[in-house]
Amino acid sequence: MAQTPTSRLRELGYELPAVPSPAGSYVPAARIGSWIFTAGQLPFENGQLPCTGKVEAEVTVEEAKDAARLCVLNALAAAASEAGGLDTIRRIVRVAGYVASSPGFNRQPEVLNGTSDFLGEVFGENGLHARTAVGVAELPLNSPVEVELVVEAAT
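Structure (tokenized):
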């Protein structure tokens, strides 16, 4: 019997968190037809950012990869709330990731592998996606990483 994304997530030792409340005038996710677009999600865990600062200056690449995994968990929670559950998400279509980067840091794709690898573990082949990894000067709340998703859900 094929495993569901929910069972894979649990097997990996994770649960979807509560959908983070928006920090501004937007919604966590918006749906049109079978497409769900999430707002950018920060790596909140139990209401706290586990690390802050720019990657390579105050945050290591490994810490940033872990933070990227937390970002995508929050994004999956937002997408699942619109989709009617995690198991109704058919495919991860696109990931956009933003990395608060110290001057000269150019390993943003490596940081975003924390997101991409995790999605592959949870969704298998349906977790393969297009991706953008961008280095930025600042992110909200001094977060090192922010991630947004586009997913296809069952209609």
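The chain has one domain: 5-16+35-153. The chain is about 30% helix and 25% strand.
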